[in-house]
Amino acid sequence: MESSIEIHNDIQNSISRKEKAFAKAILESIGDCSEFRVIPQENQLVFISDSHVLMKYTNSGMESVNSEKELIRARQQHEIELLFGSQKFVWNISDRSKSAEFEDLVLELLNREAWIFSVKKVAPTNQGDNGRDLICEYNMLHNEHQISKDENSIKIGKMIVQCKTNLSTSKKSSVGKADVDVADTIFDYRPEGYMLVVNTQITRDLTEMLERQKDRKEQNSIVWWNSFDVEERLRKNPDILSRYKNLVSYA
């Protein structure tokens, strides 16, 4: 890590190791070898030794904190891949309340995708959603494998996301055509994109139906994630995995 993160009264700041070493060198150059405290502020670091106060203007606020968090996340992803790269996942979705939590998990994973700009739930769990679990704003010019957020390559579209689960108590191990209402949902709401996310697999018939809908080019994007796609993203986002360990965990 390039910096340490300090939290005081819910205010987060970063302290750069490079800036700390710089301050130490300055103080030692004037004969001050005493220990010093560091007080981080939004746009500066204040170094206080026994005899001197040194201020260094630098970005130590939320922008710097977020950059450091991204470095931590990248390091964690690498560590998780080393430790658990070949290990399988076990799903434990046993009732409707956990199916609703699966929607929350998908929402968090979508928020990490660079081609997705915003994600919202359509309705509370106890209200009907008319086939729409989540609504996304996404970049219509780049699909999930061609990521870019340059200002010159952005066109915002609306995508409807349906989340389907197979309960652990069920004998079914896949999601089929009878389990989703793809055509009706697309016809009723005319979104630019449609996405289906499941915690198991989708059947061949459903895959072929989605491929036919994609080939019609009536929508800008038709996307589906099976368990493999979800689990791949969970490996890359261990913080999300840790929040939903009641739903899914390493075997």
Morphology call: elongated
Tell me, rounded to a whole number, the average pLDDT. Answer: 87
**Span from first to last CA?**
30 Å
Strand order of the largest sheet: 7-8-9-11-13
- The gyration radius over C-alpha positions equals 24 Å
Question: Summarize this, please?
Answer:
The protein has helices spanning 17-29, 62-84, 96-111, 182-189, 204-216, 227-236, 238-243, and strands spanning 3-8, 11-16, 37-40, 44-48, 53-57, 89-91, 116-121, 134-139, 156-164, 174-175, 193-198, 201-202, 221-225, 248-250.
3D structure, described in words:
There is one protein chain. Helices cover 35% and strands 27% of the residues. It has 251 residues and is of the alpha/beta class.
Topology record:
Blueprint: E1 3-8, E2 11-16, H1 17-29, E3 37-40, E4 44-48, E5 53-57, H2 62-84, E6 89-91, H3 96-111, E7 116-121, E8 134-139, E9 156-164, E10 174-175, H4 182-189, E11 193-198, E12 201-202, H5 204-216, E13 221-225, H6 227-236, H7 238-243, E14 248-250
Can you tag this structure with a few keywords?
251 residues, alpha/beta, 14 strands, 35% helix
